Amino acid sequence: MIRRLSHRLHVDLVRSPKGVQHLTTLVVTAVSTILLTRLFLELTGYPQIGGSSLHIAHVLPGGLLMLAALVLLLAHIGAGPRPPAAVLGGVGFGLFIDEVGKFVTTDNDYFYEPAAAIMYVVFALLVTWATRWRRSRPLDPDERVAGAAFALVDGLAGRLSERRRDDALRLLEKAGDSPGAAEIGRLLRQVRPAPVSPSHHLEDLWVAVRSLFDRLAGTRWAVPLMGALLLAQALGATLIAVGLWRAGEGDGVSFSGVLLGATASFFLALAGLRRWRDEGRRAAVESFQRAVLVSLLLTQVFLFAASQFTATAGLLVDLVLLGLLTADLDRLRRTGEEPAQS
Predict the structure, then answer these.
(1) Which of 39, 104, 109, 291 reaches 20 to 30 Å from 199, CA-CA?
(2) Residue 311 to residues 39, 241, 315, 325, Cα–Cα distance (Å)
(3) pLDDT digits (tens, 9 = 90+) for 57-101
(4) What DSSP string describes 104-165?
(5) Do residues 248 and 307 make contact, with C-beta atoms less than 8 angstroms apart?
(6) Closest Cα to residue 117, out of 279, 339, 314, 286?
(7) Which keywords has UniProt assigned to this entry (predicted)?
(8) Which 8-state DSSP code applies to residue 79?
């Protein structure tokens, strides 16, 4: 959709090889900022910054941090500014959207209950889009060459680490004989690697998490364990919804939404375990991924309306499972396993 829109508006959009990484950093930072902000306000009794006549809401520093992220990206070239910009933008967006209750109510109600669900939907959609964005259409050879050229900008300025240079060279290997690939490769091999900077440490953390997910997802017990977690989560969400409904803490709409989402996730997880036996690992992982997305975009949304704490725990489980499933699918694609027939 974005590609068609860019053509119609005559906007040149070249996808970044690390786009999913930066978007994930932004989401994790934003969610962490919201949770820490709410915890701080709860522990301090919701202090008012600005005295008796003024109230400096935290949406203001949030906007300034998002502006700082934009300035960082617009005023500099190369890949170096992107990791810190993702963190600054995530903190700023978290502070901004944490006050969404004030934006949608006439009495500026920070404690507006549906605000949590609104925040959840925003982040769930962003995570889902970031996960499926690359998978729906892998980078083409020209985009790989462009990504390597983007890294070369840092190299020409003496800001390219050895690991980033190796990543760029691997992009060129996958680009084949595309125009410019050989020339950019020669220049990359000539640049002298730079010392590791703070932004590199952010990428090192991402690489460590991704490597951990790759190792866990590649084990023999990963498929049955993920299936069991999905089944247990669906049953748990149903029991929690029933308990909240009986206690009068949830309405019929929330209960119905949780029940519908949990039922769909449960049967998708069961189908995944059956397909694992009949069709192979990739078929199972694809079914599990559908189950996680249903839980992320349906079950947890309605559960958030009834119990924010419970849904937050469910969100963390869904994100971990989504990371494991994505890592497993990427590994299966690298090994050349045939796609499942469905």
Answers:
(1) 39
(2) 16, 11, 6, 20
(3) 889 999 999 999 999 999 998 888 888 899 999 999 999 998 998
(4) HSTT--TT-THHHHHHHHHHHHHHHHHHHHHHHSPPPHHHHHHHHHHHHHHHHTT---HHHH
(5) no
(6) 314
(7) Membrane, Transmembrane, Transmembrane helix
(8) S
* DSSP assignments along 267-305, one per residue: HHHHHHHHHHHHT-HHHHHHHHHHHHHHIIIIIHHHHHH
Tell me which residue has tokens 């919701």.
Answer: 46
Q: Which two tokens stand for residue 200?
A: 């590199």
Q: Say what the pLDDT of residue 108 is.
A: 84
Structure tokens at 201: 């440490």
Q: Which of these ranges, 105-114, 170-179, 220-229, has the smallest mean pLDDT?
A: 105-114
Q: Tokens for 59, please give them.
A: 């949406």
Residue 135 identity: R
Angle 222-246/252-278 helices, nearest 10 degrees? 160
**Domain limits of the chain?**
18-136, 141-199, 218-335
User: How far apart are the two ends of the chain, measured CA to CA in Å?
Assistant: 24
Helices marked H in 9-140 = 19-44, 59-75, 82-97, 100-104, 114-136
Cβ neighbors of 144 (< 8 A, separation 6 or more) are 17, 171, 172, 174, 175, 178
With 0-12 CB in 10 A as exposed, 13-18 as middle and 19+ as buried, what is 259? middle
